[in-house]
Specification:
- Keywords: Membrane, Transmembrane, Transmembrane helix.
- It is found in: Cell membrane.
- A hairpin with a 6-residue loop joins strand 22 (551-556) and strand 23 (563-564).
- This protein is 41% helix and 19% strand.
- A six-stranded parallel β-sheet has the order 3-2-1-4-5-6, sandwiched between helices. Strands 16-15-14-17-18-19 form a six-stranded parallel β-sheet, with helices on both faces. A five-stranded antiparallel β-sheet has the order 7-8-13-10-11.
- It has 20 helices and 24 strands.
- The two termini are 31 Å apart.
């Protein structure tokens, strides 16, 4: 949960927003600010060829911090700004921008992106307005929910447990007839077809549904029980993954050893075996005084090759040719044994064993989750999945990845290899996985890997009759690109870190306290708390005047402290109230815009 350290949404002056950075997440944030009617000033560290094109599209003022970030912020009008959003690609730059902005204006709300939890925690504890956010922490829950098939979301609203649950429609009719006072958030209709269901966002209660549709409804647990609908108290519980028996593990261990050892190791074993057979034959036929059985010959050959000394047999009284053979045998045995020990040492203590360890552990997995891409996002998803009791296997291309030690600390096996190659996916036992999350930072690699995963899964990828299969979650940066990929290739769980994280940054900058986010199909929903300003544009506005895609699920009255839920269509906002709202985040930002419109001061 994101808390507002100022304690009041309207404490900052209602001016423009300064965004530090212009690519990646910053571009998505600027686009959304402009779409919601906000005035934006851009601060960048250096000139980039893409900057001119971006500015031409946005038509906003740009200030370059060639010499000093403080001067650039001052030029951008920080004295009249409502907030500063620091979302540059370099974390050190974000930290510097946040610190300088706070020093220039201690009362301004500063929203900063930092992946470093230690520095971010210290900055959050500074006591000033604003907040530090980690994109991986914000986006990971959506990926985890998709992997685990979680369709029930619990949200604490003023101490009341609200539930958003996806419920199959069993009887055709209107939503009001089927679900009564439960608030409809979305209806997934037309569930047949490879590209997923058509989603109607925030339909009215008179919206008609039919058998086979899935409606996502919002209400308290008691409201669901009144309709005879049971909702899970916690969907974090998962089915335990199966464990192989002793024989299966032993067989897999032998196969793993054969596969991971240097091929020359087995060649030298062959040489050693040949040497022992030859020596046994020579000794059996040629050893004199008192003669030698086959077992004696094998024993004496092994004793000679191992150079353990002669206490029972020796060559002292044997013919010259046999003594010459003993010399050859000792040198050949010494050399062969030394090479075998060298190959064993390579297998046990070299870098090769680190790469092989993940594969060997993965061979025992069944019903696990495969996470492809060991970045800040990937390790966060893997950690959350493990915390929910799931076995996890990570696939990573680079052995030198800086998160390898974090995976080792968590005890998560890492298969090192190219995830676009079928052999690597087979090593991670993707064909036996319960879910796959493809989370590298390269969209093209993610699409290629997703297609390779689909080929490995075969029939488990998709069941045309039931629309069930192994969830494959793809990370795609751009939302429109993600929609196109989902439609063309049939991926049902496409997620964008920028799309998932941007609402938190925008809401924090404009005064919305974000309580949580969740996804219905590809549509993201946000739950937040908005304080109604005395001089804001929402005072006196009735529920029915808000966008049809925004749900006010609760209203804490400033006069009494009591919570009204659900507020009726004629209920009006009053100054000092806290409104708890849910909907697509674009719609929630429109509500913020409605409040800020009355007092906005142009820079």
């Amino acid at each position: 949960m994101l808390e507002d350290p100022t304690g009041a949404a309207g404490m900052c002056r209602s001016g423009h927003v300064i965004v530090c950075g212009f690519v990646g997440l910053a571009a998505r944030i600027v686009d959304q600010f402009l779409a919601s009617g906000e005035s934006v000033s851009l601060v960048v560290r250096q000139v980039d060829p893409a900057l001119d094109a971006a500015v031409a599209r946005w038509r906003i003022p740009v200030h370059t911090a060639f010499v000093s970030i403080g001067d650039a912020l001052a030029e951008a009008g920080i004295e009249a700004a409502a907030a500063v959003v620091c979302v540059e690609e370099n974390e050190l730059w974000n930290l510097e921008s946040a610190l300088i902005a706070t020093r220039l204006r201690p009362d301004i709300r500063v929203v900063t992106h930092l992946d470093n939890s230690t520095v971010g925690g210290a900055l959050n504890d500074g006591g000033g307005p604003g907040v530090v956010l980690d994109v991986a922490d914000l986006a990971a829950p959506s990926v985890v929910e998709a992997c685990l098939g979680i369709s029930t979301h619990h949200v604490d609203v003023a101490g009341i447990d609200f539930v958003a649950a996806a419920i199959p429609v069993t009887v055709g009719g209107t939503l009001r007839e089927a679900f009564g006072d439960l608030a409809p958030l979305a209806v997934a209709a037309g569930s047949s077809g490879p590209n997923g269901a058509r989603v109607v966002t925030c339909p009215g209660r008179d919206h008609r549904v039919r058998l086979g549709d899935v409606a996502t409804m919002l209400g308290t647990t008691a409201q669901f029980e009144t309709r005879g609908i049971a909702v899970a108290a916690d969907e974090n519980q998962t089915i335990p993954t199966s464990r192989p028996g002793v024989l299966l593990r032993a067989r897999a261990g032998v196969r793993g050893f054969v596969r991971d050892a240097n091929p020359n190791f087995f060649r030298m074993l062959g040489v050693l075996f040949t040497l022992l057979v030859l020596s046994t034959t020579v000794l059996r036929l040629g050893y004199q005084k008192p003669g030698m059985s086959v077992l004696d010959a094998i024993y004496f050959s092994t004793e000679t090759v191992a150079t353990v000394g002669y206490g029972d047999f020796n060559f002292a009284d044997q013919p010259p040719l046999l003594r010459i053979w003993s010399i050859i045998l000792m040198f050949a045995g010494l050399t062969t044994t030394a090479m075998i020990m060298a190959f064993l040492a390579e297998l046990l203590i070299s870098r090769r064993i680190a790469e092989a360890a993940g594969r060997r552990r993965a061979r025992f997995m069944d019903g696990h989750v495969v996470v492809i891409g060991l970045g800040a996002f990937g390790i966060r998803v893997a950690r959350e999945l493990q915390a929910r009791g799931r076995d996890v296997v990570i696939v990573e291309r680079s052995q030198s990845n800086r998160f390898m030690s974090a995976a080792a600390t968590l005890g998560i096996p890492v298969v090192v290899g190219d995830a676009t190659v079928a052999e690597t996916l087979s090593d991670a036992r993707v064909h036996r996985a319960s879910a796959v999350a493809v989370l590298t930072s390269d969209d093209m690699v993610n699409v290629e890997t997703g297609i390779a995963v689909r080929a490995i899964l075969g029939e488990r990828w998709f069941d045309n009759a039931e629309r069930v299969g192994v969830p494959v979650v793809l990370r795609i940066f751009d939302r429109s690109m993600g929609d196109a990929v989902a439609e063309r290739f049939g991926f049902r769980h496409v997620r964008s870190t920028a799309e998932l994280a941007a609402p938190w940054f925008i809401g924090a900058a404009l005064g919305l306290v974000v309580l949580g986010t969740f996804s219905v199909q590809s549509q993201s929903f946000m739950v937040g708390r908005l304080g109604i300003d005395v001089d804001g544009g929402l005072v006196g506005v009735q529920m029915q005047e808000l966008s049809a895609n925004t749900r006010v699920i609760g209203l804490r009255r400033a006069a009494t402290g009591e919570v009204e839920y659900p507020p009726r269509r004629g209920t009006a906002f009053a100054a000092g109230d806290d409104a708890y709202v849910v909907g697509p985040y674009e719609e929630l930002l429109a509500v913020l815009e409605h409040q800020r419109a009355a007092t906005r001061v142009q820079p």
